[in-house]
Design goal:
eight-stranded mixed β-sheet, 11 helices, single chain
């Protein structure tokens, strides 16, 4: 009997070692070695008013750790703009008539940002999937007007060449954000733009393995991040439950369940542009 117990203990110990090894190997897929770990990116750069500029409802899921900690830890004023209602999205699972999806996803976005403590959130009505076709001047002017009203010292958005996921709407909103900031600086009014532009960056190795062609596009066209911070995975799980029409998005897109993704991907990564040292021309 004693030998049997010893054998069981040895087998259990080996299994534990194997599982721990598998976990750390999987976690390394979502690690970015250039990124310095910080409690809060907004706190690190001294932000007090933060504006996120996105394309679709649920885009804020990529940055909810940043916004949650900016509000809870740093006491920052936080705001979001979402350019489309996401009406052309694929429902996973189906929760509404497709013709009502824009209304449903708008409500999901507003509810999720409220759950993150965001102070205000505008959802615009530009066409989902058609943002690059919208008049550029109209988008820039509307964003400039919003920035003048909110007066953010930190703007969070997409890297224009990659858009975090390779989606053209993301890429266009990233480009428009830069144009709006450049216009504010050129106008030189009482508010002449933010101090920092913060880009959300996707994990390179994981995207290379699971992201397909779009993932490879992102990997090849995004900068390395300087900062890593907690992804607040509990808030991400809450967010996907709130975004009921997209709740199974991760499983659908990457063939991995959300619980496993966030067990391994528990950090958010950011490239920060100091606009005094590196202005947008």
């Amino acid at each position: 009997m004693r030998k049997r117990w010893i054998a069981l203990i040895v087998v259990a110990s080996v299994l534990v070692v194997v599982l721990v090894g598998v976990y750390w190997a999987g976690r390394s897929l979502f690690h970015m070695p250039t990124a310095k770990g910080v409690d809060s990116v907004v706190g690190e750069i001294g932000g007090e008013r933060v504006l996120g500029v996105f394309a679709h409802p649920d885009d804020e899921q990529t940055v909810n750790g940043l916004f949650w900690r900016a509000k809870q830890d740093d006491g920052a004023y936080t705001a979001m703009i979402t350019a489309t209602a996401g009406e052309a999205g694929h429902q996973v699972p189906v929760v509404a008539r497709q013709e009502d999806l824009g209304i449903v996803r708008t409500a999901e976005a507003l509810k999720n940002s409220f759950n993150l403590g965001v102070d205000e959130h505008e959802v615009w009505d530009y066409p989902d999937g058609g943002v690059p076709l919208v008049d550029e001047d109209e988008l820039v002017d509307r964003l400039v007007a919003a920035m003048k009203r909110i007066e953010p010292d930190v703007v969070v958005g997409f890297w224009p060449a990659s858009g975090a996921t390779g989606h053209k709407d993301h890429m266009e909103m990233g480009r428009v954000t830069e144009l709006a900031i450049a216009q504010l600086k050129e106008e030189g009014g009482a508010y002449d733009g933010p101090d920092h532009l913060v880009y959300t960056i996707s994990p390179t190795t994981a995207l290379s393995l699971f992201g397909g062609e779009q993932g490879q596009l992102v990997v090849e066209n995004q900068p390395d991040p300087e900062y890593a911070m907690s992804a607040e995975t509990g808030k991400k799980h809450e967010g996907w439950a709130i975004h009921a029409s997209q709740e199974d998005y991760l499983q659908s897109a990457y063939d991995l369940p959300a619980w496993l993704v966030y067990l391994l991907w528990d950090q958010e990564f950011y490239h920060v542009r100091d606009l005094a040292a590196d202005p947008i021309e």
